[in-house]
Amino acid sequence: MSAQPTILVVDDERELADLYAMWVGEDYEVVTAYDGSTALEQMSDAIDIVLLDRHMPDITGDRVLEEIRATGYDCWVLMVTAVDPGLDIVELDIDDYLTKPVTRTQLTRIVENLRVQARYGDDDRRELESISNKMETLEDEASIEELTDTEAYRQLESDLKEMSDSLVEGLDEE
Questions:
Q1: Per-residue confidence in pLDDT tens, the chain, 174 aa
Q2: Residue 84: DSSP 8-state
Q3: Do the beta carbons of residue 37 and residue 58 sit within 8 Å?
Q4: Cα 133 to Cα 146: distance, rounded to the nearest angstrom
Q5: For residue 79, what are the β-bridge partners?
Q6: How far is CA 140 from the centre of its chain?
Q7: For the whole model, what pTM was predicted?
Q8: Is the dihedral of CA 22, 64, 13, 108 positive or negative?
């Protein structure tokens, strides 16, 4: 990721897309798309972070995400959406999930965190952070008791433990 990352803001609500672009535009290069088709047209290796709405009329954010990953772009993806998260986010190849409405502070803090992770992290740490973020998002929506009754959440817990153990072993070997 370059010194000044490029962020692709994707939201069919023009006012929100423009607002998010303004918020992050002070510190980052910004490209804006108001629908999924335009987002896919604007994707390139120059895009470091995608702020992606999940519910759009032409192509859903989930589908845009699939296309981004299938094409091989290795950017960070932050879902910024009004869709309350469910266990389906476990399967999404995202780095974080924010439910609208979001504040400028929330959005810019997460973008900055992604930037720092990109600078200092490796793929294992990125995956660990993604799992942790998904768990935190789900825990904000449902009780731990409800979540631990689901196979998807138990798998996240297992993956988190496995990844953590692996990273600790790697540190011990250094």
A1: 446 789 999 999 999 999 999 999 988 999 999 999 999 999 999 999 999 999 999 999 999 999 999 999 989 999 999 988 888 888 889 989 999 999 999 999 888 887 777 665 566 677 777 777 788 888 888 888 888 888 888 888 887 778 777 766 665 665
A2: P
A3: yes
A4: 18
A5: 52, 97
A6: 16
A7: 0.76
A8: negative
Taking only Cα atoms into account, the Rg of the chain, rounded to an integer number of angstroms, comes to 16
For 45, half-sphere exposure in the C-beta direction (CA atoms, 13 angstrom radius) is 1
- Backbone CA torsion sign across 71, 23, 57, 55: positive
Residue spans of beta strands (DSSP E) within the chain: 6-10, 29-33, 49-52, 76-81, 96-99
The pair of structure tokens assigned to 67 is: 């296309």
Give exposure, 140-157, as e/b (b: 16+ Cβ within 10 Å): eebeeeebeeeeebeebe
